[in-house]
Specification:
With 745 residues, this protein is α+β, with helices and mostly antiparallel strands. It is 41% helix and 15% strand. It is built from 22 helices and 21 strands. The strands form four sheets. It has a seven-stranded mixed beta sheet. The protein has a six-stranded mixed beta sheet with strand order 16-19-18-17-20-21. A five-stranded antiparallel beta sheet has the order 1-3-5-4-2, sandwiched between helices. α3 packs antiparallel against α4 and α19 crosses α20 (565-575). Residues 544-561 have a biased composition (Low complexity).
Length: 745
């Protein structure tokens, strides 16, 4: 675990609101933002908490320093502690720094190779209104990190840093930007030559040959490159400090040939760090893109501005035509006045919408054409499908995914992939697989802790397409069991390299195939002519199948028509498992008992004896809460009272009624977004409130510019009252609403 204070270089740029908005912004990524917590704040939403913190900071008018403390808690690659541990780590670290009573906003980020927590802390105490600055915070953070690592069993990291602040900044530049720093270049290229110089003349000659110059500045020495970049000599090596050099070479002597032009063998340039792959062409393209950035952005902005002006002119032209029509066909002074007012309001609204759209386009253009570092440019190119850029990212430093991983025996090859959510600076691709995240570092795949069954199956499918049919699974016993189950359910032609896993997969697969063969009915002759011939299912089972199909469909329409009823029964038979019926030929199974002879008894469940007890999978779903049913349902199971087939569920009917009402108002010209019934699909969802129609609760979820209406129960409606409008939500595989952000009061 690494604890780091991220200071603001310029005091005037310090802004708690900007920092909080950054750490809580999902940036259109499904798996970037984890849990968001508000601590020591009376507000319930992030926006209100920011306002509360800013008000607290404004109460202190004497403090002249930075009133915001940005703390970063990072974990090694592959380490993913549970939410409870993350919460304890945050609280203990803040308490050690003296911020236990201070207001703070924290957010967990999952979009990099390192799980990390951003914590924005208000230095101003909410009660005393005094500012607290931790003394030697780096020592405190190192001590508490060691203690927490031992207490929670986390991976231990070396917390005793031997680098100076300048060395740390140079290392950060090389790591994050991917270009060489002057400190690193001197150490790699000419440090040995500099330290081996025996006189000041030899030292200055070595400096000139490498395009450098040693100068005296204040009480020390600085090394300046040909492009003007300077660094303290003692930062490069302690042997180059002024006391060390003067003790070895005598009093300082300036270069006698300081003004002479000497051809250097090599000189420092901010080139990319040398990688295992050739990036000459990529870097040339990067330099060309950066040089033409301003021109391309200006041209794109001019096109967007021209498009905005054309839309505004078209709106004004339409407004003039509307006023002319009102002038001709209007009746009465008052009527014309009202119509003119409506026309003017419509014009203002349309112009505001056009300007808002232009502002969004302009922000997107500035983000697209902003200056990027070398590594960020590689990320953008890799996200657009540039395989060379992706290879360059992976050549910097292997992510080395750990934990629950999947890998294949073959070489990686391009193929079908789910939607890409993000690409890290180490070349790890984060895919969206339903509600799960799958990471690919080029050698193996890693599945997120909250992976669903669909996510595991998608990971297996992706591994098979990328690496071949021989799959290696590493991780916990529970994860291996889940992968075996996913392989059996997906029926993928794969083979596990672990003999134990492969034998277990084969056993489950054979068991599944055996059940399907024994339960598959033999269709001989015509079907659908009664409930007694070979290959027929009891009529009550047909009713149960139809009711269950309607319940699963959720839209009030039967899942199978009259002609498809036999197929629906076959599908239900494949799902239900046949109980232990004893020796073959002794007596028929429960599905074949109680035929036409006991037709009047089919409406109830009769437990005749221990040998005839029905298992839960054999009981129709409507038995526990059955209503009054006639006992003369001999042939067709069509729509009729008591069966529930063909009737619209109350939730769906209420949703349709609300949608029809809103759509009718929208067609009349009201400023109402399009409403429709909820359907699963891609795109983030935001909560827009709840409505009650005829006693049925409805949830409003916004996806893009469309509002989705979803029926919910009363318990869910009560839970949603604690969610603010505009918060991000998601729909689980079971159809329940889950908040994407957590909070703590």
């Amino acid at each position: 675990m690494i604890l780091k204070h991220v200071p603001m270089r310029s005091l005037g740029k310090s802004d708690f609101a900007e920092l909080a908005n950054y750490i809580t912004d999902a940036q259109s990524k499904e798996h970037r933002l984890g849990e968001v917590r508000l601590t020591n704040c009376h507000a319930a939403t992030v926006g209100d908490a920011i306002t509360e913190v800013l008000a607290t900071q404004h109460t202190n008018t004497r403090a002249t320093g930075d009133k915001t403390y940005h703390l970063l808690v990072s974990f090694p690659p592959g380490e993913n502690p549970p939410a409870a541990v993350l919460q304890q780590v945050e609280e203990r670290v803040c308490a050690a720094l003296g911020y236990s009573e201070h207001q703070r906003i924290s957010a967990v980020h999952n979009d990099t190779d390192h799980l990390h927590i951003h914590i924005a802390i208000n230095k101003i105490h909410p009660v005393r209104n005094t500012m607290h600055e931790p003394f030697q915070a780096y020592r405190t953070m190192a001590d508490i990190a060691v203690k927490l690592e031992k207490e929670f069993g986390l991976q231990q990291v070396n917390h005793s840093s031997k680098r100076t602040l300048a060395e740390g900044r140079a290392g950060d530049m090389e790591h994050h930007a991917g270009v060489e720093s002057l400190v690193g270049w001197i150490r790699r290229e000419c440090l040995d030559e500099i330290t081996n110089a025996q006189t000041w003349q030899e030292l200055h000659q070595v400096m000139r040959e490498n395009g450098l110059e040693l100068r005296s500045r204040a009480n020390g020495f600085v090394i300046e490159a040909s492009d003007g970049t300077m660094v303290k000599a003692s930062t490069v090596a302690r042997d180059l400090s002024r006391p060390s050099l003067e003790a070895r070479l005598g009093p300082f002597e300036a270069s006698p040939e300081r003004q002479a032009q000497t051809t250097a063998k090599r000189q420092y340039r901010k080139d990319p760090i040398r990688l295992r792959v050739n990036t000459v062409e990529l870097y040339a393209k990067y330099r060309a893109d950066q040089q033409s950035l301003t021109t391309a952005r200006g041209q794109a902005l001019e096109r967007a501005r021209h498009r905005k002006n054309r839309l505004i002119e078209a709106a004004k032209r339409s407004h003039r035509l509307r006023r002319a029509t009102i002038k001709v066909v209007g009746e009465g002074r008052t009527t014309k006045k009202l119509l003119y007012a409506q026309a003017s309001k419509a014009l203002r609204s349309e112009i505001q919408a056009i300007n808002k759209q232009f502002q969004q386009e302009r922000a997107a253009l500035y983000a697209e054409h902003s200056r990027r570092t070398w590594v960020d440019w590689l990320k953008k190119e890799a996200h657009h499908g540039n395989t060379e850029a992706l290879a360059a990212l992976r050549a910097r430093e292997k992510a080395g995914l750990k934990g629950n991983t999947i890998r294949g025996e073959g070489q990686a090859k391009p193929g079908h992939a789910p939607a890409v959510d993000n690409i890290t600076k180490k070349g790890t691709i984060i895919f969206r697989a339903g509600m799960s995240a799958v990471r690919d570092d080029g050698d193996r795949l890693q599945v997120s802790r909250e992976a669903t069954r669909e996510g595991l199956q998608e990971a297996l499918r992706l591994a098979m397409q990328r690496y071949g049919n021989r799959i290696t699974v590493n991780g916990t016993v529970e994860f291996k069991a889940q992968m075996i189950r996913a392989a059996v359910d997906s029926q993928l032609p794969i083979t596990f390299t672990d003999p134990a896993l492969e034998s277990r997969r084969q056993a489950l697969l054979n068991k599944e195939n055996t059940h399907e063969r024994t339960e598959r009915p033999e269709h001989r002759g015509r079907t659908g002519r009664g409930a007694g011939g070979p290959g027929q299912w009891p009529l009550a089972d047909q009713h149960a199948t139809g009711a269950a199909a309607v319940a699963r469909a959720g839209d009030g329409r039967p899942a199978a028509g009259r002609g498809d009823r036999a197929d629906a029964g076959i599908h239900a038979a494949n799902v239900h498992r046949k109980p232990d019926v004893g020796r073959l030929g002794r007596k028929p199974p429960p599905q074949s008992q109680h035929r036409l002879r006991a037709l009047s008894e089919l409406g109830v469940v009769r437990i005749a004896g221990g040998s005839e007890v029905l298992l839960p999978r054999d009981v129709p779903r409507h038995v526990e809460q059955q209503g009054t049913q006639p006992d003369h349902a001999l042939r067709r199971a069509i729509s009729r009272p008591g069966t529930g087939v063909g009737q619209t569920p109350p939730g769906v009917a209420a949703a349709d009624k609300y949608i029809a009402e809103r759509e009718a108002k929208r067609l009349k010209g009201f400023d109402i977004p399009k409403h429709s019934r909820y359907t699963a699909g891609d795109g983030a969802l935001t909560f827009q409130g709840t409505r009650t129609i005829e006693g049925q609760a409805l949830a409003l979820l916004k996806r893009g510019d469309e509002v989705m209406v979803m029926p919910i129960d009363q318990a869910t409606a009560r839970r949603l009252t604690r969610i603010a409008v505009g918060d991000a939500v998601s729909i689980t595989a079971k159809g329940s609403i889950k908040t994407s952000k957590g909070r703590s009061r």
